[in-house]
Each structure stands twice: as structure tokens, then as C-alpha cells.
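haha ok so turns out i had the wrong file open the whole time. this is the CORRECT one, sorry everyone. sequence first:
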Amino acid sequence: MKKAWIWGIGLLACGSLQAARQDYQGRGFEAYVQKTGGGSYAEFMNSGRPTLKVRAGEEYSIVVRNPLPVRAAVAISIDGLNSVDGKRSSPAKARKWILEPGQSFTLTGWQTGKDKSRALVFSDENSSYAKWKGNRDRKDYARNLGVIGVAWFWNAAELDLALHPPQPFEDEHYVKASRKRMDAQPAAAEAASASAGRAGTGMGRQQENHVTEVAFNETAGMYKVSDVLKIYYEFASEPALPMPFEGDEGDGRFAPDMNG
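then structure:
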């Protein structure tokens, strides 16, 4: 079944980076956080979690790279809210960015329209986008402050074909194994956790970012929150464990602008 996703035009990563890496189904998936204009963040282990020390008012970006030999859809959430439409959504239902094989993509802002975004900027809780949107919707979004989540999805049949191209001769065992891989479908799972934090992400300056919707049929990927790459950040005190994705929320194609 075809699904419509968002295609973003990003830049290749540069400068000092902090990474989260996870091996999933034999592939190494990575996500990075970098300061706008260069520079690095202090990083330390907090209760077994790599955590970045950040300052309010700093602009930053999130860099992801597609390690697959086929197109992939990437869901990126910040403080539990989707970077495209600002919703709380599970990895499976989240709106996603499309990356070509081996492509790197730099997310620099919340997508507030088809041609514009607002810069990602670290903020205190009261100035965060999650707090503003929670007040507007009369829901508690601020409990998920301090975590960035990245989940990859792809088409299993396309990946199988890329990894096992047609051969001039093949035996029956190979054909049966290929069909078994193509028929395998991971089960979607929902997860949620009540958590809190003090460091969040707000909306900074407006910038141009042209996007368009494309059709993409994903059949495999990180459907479980436990599989999602997570990057934690905070000002000082340790927050309770936040979750990067939650249940689905309403309609809307882009993130509502808190300064609009």
C-alpha cells in the first residue's frame, strides 16, 4: 500500500558531531547532533545514557545518513514531537523524510510549511515548542523534553533485490529463501512513558526549506520505540527517561508555528 511521505532537501554534515549508533538487522544506523556554525557539546554518560550538555539559545541541527543501498524513510522526533507536523506519533505513523541510498540529510528546523521551517534552538521548558503546543492543545507534551528520536524504514523487497540481484542461474533453495524474506513483516508496537525534563527545543529564526510529498511503500523498519536511536540532552539535573515517539494525534501536514 502506497503512503505519502515528505521529501526534504538537506546538506551534508560537517563540523563537530555527537553520535548515537545502533546496529539493527545487520546495518549500522547513526544520528548526530551538531551546533549551527560549528563547535561541539560536552557529552557524558547519565544513568547509562549518552547525554549532551547544552545551553539555552543555541541553534543546532540533526544529521542522519542512510546506510542502505535503497531509499529509506526517516522519522525524526524532538521532545516527543514529529519534526514535520509537530504531532506526537508512533514511529510507524510518523511523517518521514526520504533519503536516497547512502545520502546524508541535515535537519535544521521544524517544518512549518511547504517552503519554510523554524530553526531548532535549545530552550528552557517554558520556551520550548512542546510546552507551547501542549498549552495550546491542553495536553502534557512537556514530559518528553530532552530526547531526540530517529527511526528508519524501508521496502523489504527493494532491499532484498539490492542485496541479492538476479543471477543467470539460481537454485530452488535461493528462490524459497528470497520469498521468505520478502513475506516477512515486522509487527508494529506502541510504547509510552510518563517522563519529565527541563531542557527542550523551541523555534528560532525562520528559514527557507522547500519540501514536496512523494509516494513511498515502507514494509520494514524500526516500528518499536525500543529500536529507535535516541540522543538525550539536558541543562543540569537528570530527567526521568523520556520517550521519542508516542501515540498518534489528529490531522495536519506540518508543525504549527508557535510564533505564527
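Residues 1-5, 8-17, 184-197 have pLDDT under 50 and may be disordered.
again sry for the mixup
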